[in-house]
Specification:
It contains 3 helices and 9 strands; from the N terminus they run αββββββαβββα. By secondary structure, it is α+β, with helices and mostly antiparallel strands. Helix 1 packs parallel to helix 3 and helix 2 packs parallel to helix 3. It is elongated. The two termini are about 25 Å apart. The mean pLDDT is about 90.
Length: about 130
């Protein structure tokens, strides 16, 4: 799983989230920074309202939390999602000592985990697309 700080950088660079079942996310700055949530059909669902999109927490008794605006949540894309978002420019992933290296048409990106290497490559791609 990518660090929340890297996920925030992806969002700030312009990566847009279209929530789907199985997606992981955090709700930072509410004393829940370390709690990772997963969208599901039963307990945590996306509700598209006329004026906004919210993530609804159904039947959660742990907190006084009914829903949060989607802009308050930070998506933590999975490795397969990151790889898919890299598109046709993705060339390969390889081990690099204790870490991983992603080769993309835009360059090479190294990180301790495969998903972080993918995320760094995607961050570069998103920034370039929004410049």
């Amino acid at each position: 799983m990518i660090p929340v700080a890297l996920a925030r950088q992806l969002r700030q660079a312009g990566l847009r989230w279209k929530p789907a079942r199985g997606d992981r996310f955090v709700v930072p700055d509410r004393e829940m920074d370390d709690d990772v949530f997963v969208l599901s059909d039963m307990t945590i669902e996306v509700h598209v309202l006329p004026e906004r999109t919210v993530i609804g927490f159904n039947g959660t008794v742990e907190w006084a939390l009914d829903d949060v605006d989607i802009d308050e949540a930070v998506w933590l894309p999975r490795e397969d999602q990151l790889r898919s978002l890299l598109g046709g420019g993705f060339e390969r992933l390889e081990r690099d000592g204790d870490g991983y290296r992603v080769h993309h048409s835009r360059g090479t990106f190294t990180a301790p985990t495969a998903d972080e290497a993918y995320a760094l490559a995607l961050l570069d791609l998103v920034r370039a697309a929004n410049d």
